[in-house]
Write a structure and sequence with these properties.
Mean pLDDT: 84
Low-confidence stretches: 1-10, 166-180
Structural class: alpha/beta
Strand content: 5-15%
Pfam families: SNAP, TPR_12, TPR_8
Protein name: Tetratricopeptide repeat protein
Shape: globular
Distance between the termini: 91 Å
Largest sheet: 5 strands, parallel
InterPro entries: TPR-like_helical_dom_sf, TPR_rpt
Organism: Arcicella aquatica
Keywords: Repeat, TPR repeat
């Protein structure tokens, strides 16, 4: 006789198949409502549906930070124009966090916000007007309230699925990709505040201790993820460690603990804490092996390869990427093999072993084309363009960057980076007008797609562009724009690099006093783990001091 776990797993797997069947090849707007008991299961189900329904472009919108009354109105405000004006059903929109708008505060009292009544009123617009699929996610209590308080709306609902709580649920799925843009933004600050408010008001004497601890675990996890996107290492570290501690105390050994270990390791990788990154990726591998989760074992070895690659320990990087390939060949069918060959190409590219780099990039392209992975394919052409750029083969570099742009037309948020690289190609050839034209395109696309966190680096490069032409005023203006955007988006750890460049401008103008001041500021703002950058800045400080000494 099957165990409860087997019954639960079969139940959830069957629902996934039903949702896939409901949504595949739709020609008309369709709404699916999905009840899930916790954030972790929601993330896994959402990720699995994206994999199963690859014919659609998915767009996630988290309404948690907003006070929503009209769902139709806020979707019109928040969704990109390309989705709203789509001529056919090619997008699937995941709507998260709507249940948080069900109640509001008035004169110190918690009252009904009126959101459910408005949903009932605008039911026909919601179900018939949009030319995209909608998945409305929420907890079970939210949908019970919809049934009771919006009976006219509920009469339209034909696709409602209830997933069950299952801490041991082991469905293999790709890791969910964060949809929120990484940056210090007002909307993120509001969301963090709301999470902290929820955390602060959790009952201390809850009779169901396990439930209360799970809720605390969910909030710690969300806060850690948001602070990571906020570029706040210390707070992200604190909440990841708190979450991991609770997960271990609750003896959670499945996907949820693995994801915490993986995300915490990635935070440390991003901030160059390489030993900590290795420690937690390896812990994650042990947990994934215990549950026979091959996808996440592969993903962790891939990340370990990147840790060694960032440290330029090439043999260990290649050794771990080879482990990924060996595992992927056993795990058939697998669509990630092209990404691993892409990364091996990067290793050889960084060593300037061009033939091996191009050979591995070509293997990646062949596999990405076979699997229809347009996004990854564009990234590989981008790297090939960089190789030809390094070899000063400008024609082939531009040809591959154009391939990237063509492939990324549906991923507009990636276009800015490629136009920036094209600008650098023209700058290296001293074709100044073409370089500036493409830099301005990079700014346009990053601003249009909300990639403000990339603008600091773009303005920094434009500053170098003017510096090379000895346009000192324009160079300084763009470097200060870079500083402004880095501060605005929370990337203070990158400020030192730009202040160092400002020092170079003053030094090139013969103003060594101001140069020294900017170099010292750069050194004070550069984190300890930016070892190479700190050495370069120290050399500049020494050079400026020597020049001043010679003048005195």
């Amino acid at each position: 006789m099957p165990t409860n776990f087997q019954l639960e797993k079969a139940y959830n797997d069957n629902l996934l198949e039903e949702i896939q069947f409901t949504l595949q090849d739709r020609k008309e707007p369709t709404i699916v409502m999905i009840s899930v008991p916790d954030y972790d299961l929601q993330a896994r189900i959402s990720s699995s549906l994206k994999e199963r329904l690859s014919q659609y472009q998915f767009y996630d919108i988290d309404l948690t930070p907003f006070h929503v009354i009209s769902l139709h109105q806020i979707l019109q405000e928040k969704l990109p124009k390309s989705i709203i004006d789509s001529e056919r059903i090619s997008y699937c929109v995941n709507v998260f966090g709507l249940e948080n708008s069900r109640l509001s505060s008035k004169d110190g009292q918690i009252v009904d916000s009126g959101m459910i009544a408005q949903l009932n009123f605008e039911r026909e617009i919601i179900f018939r007007k949009p030319n995209y699929l909608t998945i409305l996610w929420g907890d079970h209590d939210f949908f019970i309230q919809l049934q009771r308080k919006a009976p006219d709306l509920w009469s339209w609902v034909t696709n409602f699925f209830v997933f069950k709580q299952d801490e041991a649920y082991q469905e293999k799925a790709l890791s969910p990709t964060p949809n929120n843009i990484p940056a210090k933004l007002p909307i993120r600050e509001e969301y963090i505040k709301s999470l902290k408010d929820k955390l602060e008001h959790l009952p201390l004497n809850d009779s169901d201790k396990g439930r209360a601890m799970r809720e605390r675990l969910n909030l710690y996890s969300l806060l850690a993820n948001e602070y990571a996107k906020y570029f706040d290492y210390e707070n992200a570290k604190k909440y990841y460690e708190n979450a991991i501690g609770i997960a271990e105390k609750l003896k959670i050994n499945g996907y949820q603990l693995f994801r915490l270990l993986y995300n915490y390791a990635t935070l440390n990788l991003d901030f160059r804490r390489f030993e900590l990154a290795l420690t937690f990726y390896k812990k994650g591998i042990k947990k994934a092996i215990q549950t026979n989760d091959l996808n996440n074992v592969e993903g962790s070895y891939h990340q370990i390869g990147i840790v060694y690659q960032r440290q330029r320990i090439w043999d260990k990087a290649l050794e771990n990427f080879q482990k990924v390939i060996d595992l992927q060949k056993k795990n058939v069918p697998n669509k990630q093999l092209g990404n691993t060959y892409h990364q091996i190409g990067r290793v050889y590219e960084e060593q300037r072993i061009w033939d091996k780099a191009l050979s591995n990039f070509q293997k990646a392209i062949d596999l990405q084309k076979k699997n229809g992975q347009q996004h990854q394919l564009g990234s590989t052409y981008h790297q090939i363009g960089r190789i030809y750029q390094e070899q000063k083969n400008w024609e082939k570099a531009l040809e591959n960057y154009q391939n990237t742009i063509d492939l990324h037309q549906k991923q507009e948020h990636l276009l800015g980076g490629t136009y920036l690289q094209i600008g650098i190609v023209y700058q290296e050839q001293k074709i100044w007008d073409k370089a500036l034209e493409n830099y301005l395109k990079a700014i346009y696309w990053d601003e249009r797609t909300g990639q403000e966190h990339l603008l600091g680096m773009t303005y920094h490069i434009i500053g170098i562009f003017h510096e090379e032409q000895k346009n000192w005023k324009d160079a300084l203006e763009n470097f200060y724009n870079a500083i402004n955007w880095k501060e605005k988006t929370g990337q203070n750890y990158q400020l030192g690099i730009t202040y160092h460049q400002i020092g170079r401008v003053y030094e090139n103008q013969g103003n060594d006093n101001l140069a020294l001041k900017e170099y010292e500021k750069a050194l004070s703002l550069t984190p300890e783990y930016f070892e190479e950058e700190k050495e370069i800045i120290k050399e500049s400080i020494e050079r400026a001091k020597n020049k001043l000494s010679e003048k005195s």
